[in-house]
């Protein structure tokens, strides 16, 4: 797609459309059902976590939001291992094992940090973080915890320097090598939706939790 539009504005849309319209190959030796189902499972689990953001919804009264977050992050590990295993490729399977080992190991640190926050605010709910930070951000009291949580979120989202699953010299591109067209798009949408979601939570926990203020999204851009 070479029609970039004014200042290249249409280029991302054109690239995405071109990728969606590409032919999706079917692997002869793959487990077809798991191969097709696992990217959808991965995307669904990430999108499901967006209901925890404390907008004016019924989830505002959900008092076990933190536990729900930890549970879904734990379940999402299975979708990654299924994506790597179902392709029946040594590269994808090794990458999936790396990813799962990394995510599980850092989830222990994540669990300890979130439990310590829950003890501080005396609630499992997301709404309470807006209430307790009306006059002072939790960042000022938990500077080290906020930096550690930032590092853990980098590991959870497979960002630099924790991008071991995409070691190009060893694993080509990671667990998504055998995917193309819409399924490739689903995997990357899930990855970047997860990055945005974890950024939301980092700002919510430590830098003020009012999702209806413009300042919240300015802070989100810096994260």
Written account of the structure:
This protein has 9 helices and no strands. It is an all-alpha fold and 223 residues long. It has one domain. Helix 2 (32-48) packs antiparallel against helix 3 (65-86) and helix 6 runs antiparallel to helix 8 (181-206). The radius of gyration is 19 Å and the shape is globular. The model has no long low-confidence stretch (mean pLDDT 79).
Specify the biggest β-sheet: none
Strand content: under 5%
The quaternary state of the protein chains shown equals single chain
General shape: globular
Point out poorly predicted stretches: none
Number of helices: 9
Count of spatially separate domains:
1
Number of strands: 0
Structural class of the helices, strands and pairings?
Answer: mainly alpha
Helix content: 55-70%
Q: How many angstroms separate the termini?
A: 32 Å
Summarize the helix and strand pattern as letters: HHHHHHHHH
Mean model confidence by pLDDT: 79
Q: What integer value in Å does the Rg equal?
A: 19 Å
